[in-house]
Please model this.
Amino acid sequence: MADRLTDTLVKGLPAPKAGNRIRYDSEVSGLGCRVTAAGARSFILEYRTRSGRKRRYTIGRAGEWSVGAARAEAKELKKQIDRGEDPLADIRADREAPTVADLCQRFGDEHLPKKRASTQQGYRIIIDGLILPRLRHMKVAEVTFADVDALHRRVTKGGAPYQANRAVAVLSKMFSLAMRWKWRPDNPAKGVERNREHKRERYLSADELKRLSEALTECADQQGASIIRLLLLTGARRGEVFRMRWADLDLKQGIWGKPGATTKTATFHRVPLSAPARALLAELRRKADNDAEFVFPSRFGGHRVEIKKTWHAACKAAKIVGANAHDLRHTYASVLASSGHSLPIIGRLLGHSQAATTQRYSHLQDDPLRLATERAGAILSGKPSAEVVPIKGVR
Model:
């Protein structure tokens, strides 16, 4: 049944006892007012796509839309349909388009398993704590540069400038994958200005090292104390020491072969061990079970994964302030640099894949050179040399 719809006619349409009933407009074909048994009234447009599929598109609620506005909207929709478009399919596609939550889920399922466990943990902390709370419900295709920049500024103002940078880096990687997956054509995280970061240059002085050694001797957690000693004696990363296996060690030759699965660069790293490191490991081997797999086993199976409490207790006992366990690696490298060893040698021992990473220790190499030239100057000039103060307290 078709009549020229008016606002008065629509308002007076009776509700059916069940289901819904449609009164069609005689002026625009396909336009109608649908009335449900509950009395709800909505304007709809029925049409067929070029492939012949019948569609019913809901324009909006009567009352919120006048008949005139609904008729004008129906005419615009019919123009789109005549061009071969399908308005209802577009709405469904938009409704089903992946959200940032979907992107995070796929990123976690397909990309993170390729990373080391510690890297996965870091990514998940940023995703769960910073990204999802702000962007979870946004469509991937609708996220803009302004959205990412606003997130970066918000986290920065919250007192975590480095975490803000990490969040942008994670988003950039996720959106790069979204482009590969055809979820959007560009990366909205590109171009966000990062906060300036300053590399830590905290090295333990000779006096601090002495106090730390004494504190470790009295430490209740001697397994943790041995890990700390080995970190200092090898300059290794914590994860590498945690995952150290007896099968990777040749104590007779004094060689540690780190499997690629345990290193940051994901490549095999073979390094010599110093006499003190070999002695420490030999003592641990003597006390270990014959079938032990890990040098530092966990009570719950597998290997040890954390030494935070032990490190904090040792630093408190040694009266060391402002240092973390990773600074032991910096201290090891600084001793090598100040002893005159070349950056390539230091980089090889530390397992750096890029020379630029080792470059931070270049200024420490000047210490023995400066001492030598001062002594030469004193001899040649017959005058006392200038006092040479070791940098960062490293002797």
